[in-house]
Structure formats: C-alpha cells, structure tokens
Design a protein that fits this description.
With 397 residues, this protein is an alpha/beta fold. It has 14 helices and 8 strands. The chain is globular and about 90 Å long. It starts with a helix and ends with a helix.
C-alpha cells in the first residue's frame, strides 16, 4: 500500500512537472520570437525537466521493485506459527507458450489439490479467495490461477488473439502441471461465474483429470442470461423511478452486444444488479472488497493496473465469444460428479436455468446446494457454509 501511495504521488508530481514544462517551453518559444528576455523561465524549465526525469526514474524503479517483491503471505496457525509442511507461494508458469501466474496455498503439501477458476473473463480473484476461503487451505492445496488477460497474467496473450479455447487448453495444461507437481492422479475443480462454465468445459473434455466439479454463480446460457439481466435491470430502474438508468438501458438496447463497447454497455445493467443485491437484507456480507483485494501483496503496481484492464479489455473481447454457449444443449453428459452452489437471491445468473440444466444432466452424481442468504457469490456471502459444503461434496466430511 505504501508503494502504491508513493507511486501515485510521484505520478501526480510527474504530471504537474510535465504540464509546467509544456507551459514554460511555449513561453520561451514565444519570448524568443518576440525577442523578449526569458532567462528566469529557462531556469525554471531546466529545474522542472530534472524534477520530471527524477520522478519518472523513481517511479520506474518502484514499479519494478513492487513486481519483484510481490508475494502471498505465509500460512500461519492460531499461534502465529507456520506449519512445517505448508505451502504459500506465487509461481510463474509457461502454459502452451504463455507466461502465467498461480498462487499455491495450503497447510499440507500432501493434501488434495483444489483449482479455483475465477470469474470474468478477465477477472482475478487470487487475493479475494485467500481472504474469503482461507479455511479451505487447511484441507486442500488451494490453487488460484490468473487466467490469460487478467491480473498478473494480463500479458500472457495479446487480447485480440484470446479465445475460449485459449482458456480451456491452458486450464488443462495447468491441471497436468498440478497433477505432476503434487503427485496426484486427479484434482478438484471449483469455478465461479464465468469460471463455472470453464469448469464444465474442462471436466467434460478431461474427466480423467478431475475428482469432481463445483460450479457457483453457475452460468448456463450466456445470451439468455444477458437478456434476463437486462430485463431485470429495466424492471428495477422503472420501479425506482430512475429515468436516467432507463434511458441508458434503452439507448444501449437489449443484449447481446458486440464491438468495442461490450464491457461498458453490459456494465450498465450488471452494476444495477450488483447494487440491488448489495441492498438486499437477505444477502449476508454482500459484494466484493475491491480496494482490499487490489491492494493485496500478490499484486505489484503493474498488476494492480492490469487488475482493472483485464476486467475492461479482456471481457470485451472474450465474453461475446460465449454467446453461442448453452450447457443444456452442449454438455448434458458429464463423467465426473457435478454440484451447483446457488445463491437463493442471485439475480445475475438465473438459477432457474441451473435447475433446468441439473434436471437433464447425466452425471455419476449431481445436486444443487442452496445458500439462503446469498446472491451471485455464495463463497463470499456465506463463506463458512460454503467451506462446509465443499468439504461435504469433495471429501465427504
């Protein structure tokens, strides 16, 4: 956090110095044309140039240092001691030629491996999962993956080249790495929101690599979901008499959206739904703690910037590629147990679609676990129950 404050101060100082340089440079040019003395301004220009250069050099050094020193906190027990066989590390991998980052956290390196698939596309929840689901680290080696185009892996692939298949292939490569590193034949898979669809893709294609899958905030049919979300936002706006929001929704039109403004158009109704759930008294611990997460030590200063860039840029390119996905048509048979953890008050991912999908799904085991005080994020809204249910489904505890 101190690094970020210093970086911001130096950035503001650089901008101010640059503005002064531009102003004094223009003044000196005009003075020379008009043959007027400008010695004082020239002296000031030199000082500002030195100040600008110094601030830029310091900022570059701070940014580089923050990237090098980024880390995930060590595992500690109730007494503040680190368990002897624990693991807490950030690891840079090359998956199919793309450099990406994961965090590995657990009290026992020999515990089962659980891979968490973040929402998005373009979202990073490396820090959020550590804060919200730390209890799982006592029973699993919890792996968080910054997917291509998100957070620490933002530059893994050029944004314009990313496809859904990029995530599937890299997710499988990561799975194989984890199996080999921890000497396990299979791992557990947990995905939220977009990650819930990615989890279905992976478990469907490579069932031999996974014990079971849990999807939360489960996505089923992306186009139908967007249209339902849009209609709900319009209903809320009309109910609240929010004419400005109604006009914005009408101006954008009903989704699906394409082009450069997908993120911004989608944000109009998604932000409305998020605010609606945050105000719902039935939902406990609503919303993300974005400032806490972005300020976490896992992210260097450049990662913090890419935290936001991924949500905007990657989402804009990849999300429209999912409009043709409907799990009720494409993935009705799974060869691994599948469980859905659903918030009773989720207005983002329609739970009726999940119920329909669960009814027709052919899987060795399947089921829906309801979270009565949750919205789109049961793993945050009711984290204690969430951990308990993960243990029940995955480990039978």
């Amino acid at each position: 956090m101190i690094q970020m404050i210093i970086f911001l101060v130096l950035t503001l100082l650089s901008v101010a110095a640059l503005a002064g340089i531009i102003f004094l440079s223009a003044y000196c040019v005009i003075a020379r044309i008009m043959k007027k003395p400008a010695a004082k301004q020239l002296a000031g220009l030199k000082k500002l140039t030195v100040l600008f250069a110094a601030a830029m050099i310091l900022n570059t050094g701070i940014a580089a240092l923050s990237q090098i020193t980024a880390s995930t906190p060590r595992i500690v027990d109730e007494s503040g001691n680190t368990p002897a066989n624990s693991i807490a590390e950030l690891t840079k991998l090359e998956l199919n030629g793309r450099k990406q980052w994961i965090s590995l956290r657990g009290w026992d390196k020999n515990a089962p491996v659980l891979l968490f698939l973040a929402g998005g596309p373009g979202g990073t929840q490396m820090a959020a999962v550590r804060y919200e689901l730390a209890e799982l680290e006592k029973h699993f080696v919890v792996v968080n993956w910054d997917q291509p185009g998100s957070g620490k892996s933002y530059h893994a692939e050029k944004t314009r080249n990313m496809t859904v298949d990029t995530y599937v292939r890299d997710g499988y490569a990561l799975t194989e790495y984890l199996k080999e590193r921890f000497s396990q034949e299979k791992i557990y898979l947990l995905g939220e929101s977009w990650g819930s669809a990615l989890g279905i893709f992976l478990a469907s294609l490579y069932p031999e690599s996974y014990h079971a899958f849990i999807g939360t905030g489960q996505m089923i049919d992306f186009v139908e979901t967007e249209r339902t979300d849009y209609a709900k936002a319009m209903e809320i706006a009309n109910s609240n008499g929010d004419t400005a929001l109604v006009e914005r929704l009408e101006a954008n039109g009903e989704p699906p959206y394409y082009g450069r403004d997908v993120t911004w158009k989608s944000a109009v109704y998604l932000n409305c739904l998020s605010a609606y759930m945050a105000k719902d008294p039935e939902i406990h611990n609503p919303g993300y703690n974005t400032l806490r997460d972005i300020g976490s030590p896992e992210y260097g200063l450049l990662d913090k910037i890419n935290f936001l860039r991924g949500i905007i840029n990657t989402y804009n390119v990849v999300y429209p590629q999912l409009y043709g996905t409907d799990l009720r048509k494409d993935h009705v048979k799974m060869d691994v147990p599948v469980y859905f953890f659903l918030g009773r008050h989720d207005v983002n991912a329609p739970t009726a679609l999940v119920e329909e999908y669960e009814r027709i799904l052919d899987a060795p085991e399947k089921g829906i676990v309801w979270f009565e005080h949750s919205g789109h994020s049961p793993w945050i809204n009711e984290r204690d129950k969430f951990v308990m249910e993960v243990m029940s489904c995955f480990l039978g505890k």
